[in-house]
Amino acid sequence: MSTAETLVAKPNVTRVSATPAAVELIDKLMAMHGPLMFHQSGGCCDGSAPMCYPRKDFILSAQDMFMGEIGGQPLYMGKSQWEYWQHTHIIIDVVPGRGSGFSLEAPEGVRFLTRSRVYTEAENEALDAIGPPPNGVERPAY
Fold first, then answer.
1. What's the angle, vertex CA 94, arms to CA 19 and CA 131, rounded to 5?
2. Is residue 136 part of a domain?
3. Region 93-98: what's the mean pLDDT?
4. Could you list the residue range(s) of the whole structural domain that residue 110 is in?
5. Which residues contact 65 (CB under 8 A, 6 or more apart)?
6. pTM for this prediction
7. Does residue 31 lie in a domain region?
8. For 113-134, what is each residue's pLDDT tens digit?
9. DSSP for residue 135
């Protein structure tokens, strides 16, 4: 197998990304609040949206899966949510509207929103080789 074939067969896969608008808001919130973290649980209503907190204000457990970083800030997802979403790339966006009163963007008149796309077969194979993401105990936010 040539080097080019190897690169196609094993893409560099990330589990999460953010839109430019989300990164811009993350930068603004960091300037106001310092280091941040994101968490998306499996709850209803606001619990199913990505929530932004000051990094040390949220206690993680083995039931929180580290998905990666957006805007340089860690994003975690509840294990039950991850099991549901594990075959999709998570894209964090920002839209007008009021989100949860507990998420830092709420006073800004916008809210973070989760979008996604299904992984390609090659991306799924690469993720299978990597294995599941670390949990919040194995990979704490700070």
1. 55
2. no
3. 91
4. 13-130
5. 76, 77, 78, 79, 82, 132, 133, 134, 135, 136
6. 0.87
7. yes
8. 999 999 999 999 999 999 999 9
9. B
